[in-house]
């Protein structure tokens, strides 16, 4: 190297050798390449060093904030509660998340299922985070503080849904005004309670208790000193059930057709294991506690629906129907109610059934006035047409009503036609298929 530099100096001082007295183009290129390689590496090292310094500074600040929060929690003791706050230090916003759970003195958590143990301590966990943390872990601090004053007790409340699963993130209010939110186990534990009687109140929009009410209160619970009493409550998202009559294609009946249904079948009771509600048909009933519900009207079961937890919260019960038309009354004087008598289920009638012999009024017949139409749920029916012995034809001794069978199935379309004149002709000729009821 020394020989090379000496040669370069000699060449630089000797005129006429073709050297320009400086580095050649090759040396300049090599130097630029080396510079291009070294500069990014140097910048990266500097940036890494600077970032490390910044991360260390942030962690020091976060550790200080966590320590201050822990000291505050110790000073609050029994009144300490979960909370999240922020602090700005050196233009950096730090988030301080404080979580409080009930524990034993050894920091073993006390849950609703193990709350028969004295629960007189609280485990306080503080996590501090800040923006641009990357892979840096949050700063965490823990402490155990006295959770209840001497001579006080606690109350553990478990909230479950209709399937027995825990209901998390639900506000639970105690009769003394305290409010806590259920954890993932559907559990809250109220501590530092003076001995006495308390009730638990639930009132969350969209939820209902077993009685179908959003506002639900527990039975009184007695709390004694240095122990934790327990209570469990059922509370779930309310469900709704719409009920309507449809034709054999599943289309909702028109208002005119719906008006032809027996009056007795236009009001129903929706009953489940947790209570019942009344609904007009067509109509909907809301605020049902999830369960399997049966819809009844008088002596008839219209259908049932599984509305238990996990199924769609809004469902529809469709009751299939078909039409019956009584016509051809011009040769008799028919005065009185036309009635339908239930005889049993038919193809496609689904869950619909009545006590055999149940009778519905489906219209009235008057002398020389038009036809009678009615809609009935699918099934086997006997239509009773009134017979007036003072009619223009000869009376038939002992016959005051004429009965005609109407078998309404899922294949029934339009109206099942009952021609009174034709039936009477058959009766008088001895070929009738109807007769005295």
UniProtKB/TrEMBL annotation:
The chain crosses the membrane at residues 21-47. Pfam families: CarboxypepD_reg. SUPFAM superfamilies: Starch-binding domain-like (SSF49452). InterPro entries: Carb-bd-like_fold (IPR013784), Ig-like_fold (IPR013783). Keywords: Membrane, Transmembrane, Transmembrane helix. Coiled coil: none annotated. Its EC number is 3.2.1.1. It comes from the Bacteria. It catalyses: Endohydrolysis of (1->4)-alpha-D-glucosidic linkages in polysaccharides containing three or more (1->4)-alpha-linked D-glucose units. The keyword Hydrolase does not apply. This is alpha-amylase. It comes from Spongisporangium articulatum. The lineage of its organism: Bacteria, Bacillati, Actinomycetota, Actinomycetes, Kineosporiales.
């Amino acid at each position: 190297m020394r020989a090379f530099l000496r040669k370069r100096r000699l060449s630089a001082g000797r005129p006429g050798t073709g050297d320009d007295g400086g580095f050649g183009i090759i040396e300049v290129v090599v130097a630029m390449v080396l510079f291009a390689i070294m500069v990014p590496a140097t910048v990266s090292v500097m940036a890494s060093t600077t970032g490390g310094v910044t991360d260390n500074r942030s962690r020091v600040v976060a550790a200080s904030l966590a320590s201050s929060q822990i000291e505050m929690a110790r000073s609050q003791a029994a009144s300490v509660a979960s909370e999240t706050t922020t602090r700005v230090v050196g233009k950096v916003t730090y988030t301080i998340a404080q979580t409080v759970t009930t524990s034993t003195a050894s920091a073993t958590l006390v849950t609703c299922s193990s709350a028969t143990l004295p629960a007189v301590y609280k485990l306080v966990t503080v996590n501090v985070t800040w923006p641009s943390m990357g892979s840096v872990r949050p700063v965490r601090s823990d402490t155990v503080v006295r959770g209840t004053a001497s001579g006080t007790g606690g109350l553990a409340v478990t909230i479950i849904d209709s399937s027995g699963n825990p209901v998390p993130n639900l506000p639970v209010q105690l009769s003394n005004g305290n409010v806590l939110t259920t954890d993932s186990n559907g559990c809250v534990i109220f501590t530092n309670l003076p001995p006495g009687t308390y009730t638990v109140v639930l009132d969350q929009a969209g939820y209902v208790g077993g009685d179908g009410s959003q506002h639900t209160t527990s039975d009184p619970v007695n709390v004694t000193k240095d122990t934790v009493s327990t209570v469990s409550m059922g509370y779930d998202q309310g469900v709704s059930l719409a009920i309507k009559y449809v034709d054999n294609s599943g289309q909702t009946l028109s208002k005119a057709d719906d008006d032809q249904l027996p009056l007795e079948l236009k009001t129903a009771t929706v009953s489940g294991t947790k209570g019942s509600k009344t609904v007009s048909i067509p109509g909907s009933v809301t605020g049902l506690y999830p369960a399997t519900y049966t819809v009844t009207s008088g002596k008839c079961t219209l259908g049932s629906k599984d509305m238990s937890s996990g199924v769609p919260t809004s469902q529809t019960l469709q009751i299939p129907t078909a039409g019956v038309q009584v016509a051809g009354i011009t040769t008799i004087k028919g005065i009185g109610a036309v009635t339908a008598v239930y005889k049993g289920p038919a193809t496609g009638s689904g869950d619909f059934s009545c006590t055999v012999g149940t009778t519905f009024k489906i219209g009235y017949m008057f002398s020389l006035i038009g036809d009678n139409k009615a809609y009935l749920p699918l099934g086997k029916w006997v239509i009773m047409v009134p017979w007036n012995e003072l009619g223009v034809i000869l009376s038939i001794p002992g016959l005051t009503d004429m009965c005609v069978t109407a078998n309404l199935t899922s294949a029934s379309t339009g109206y099942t036609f009952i021609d009174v004149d034709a039936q009477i002709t058959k009766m008088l000729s001895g070929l009738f298929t109807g007769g005295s009821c």
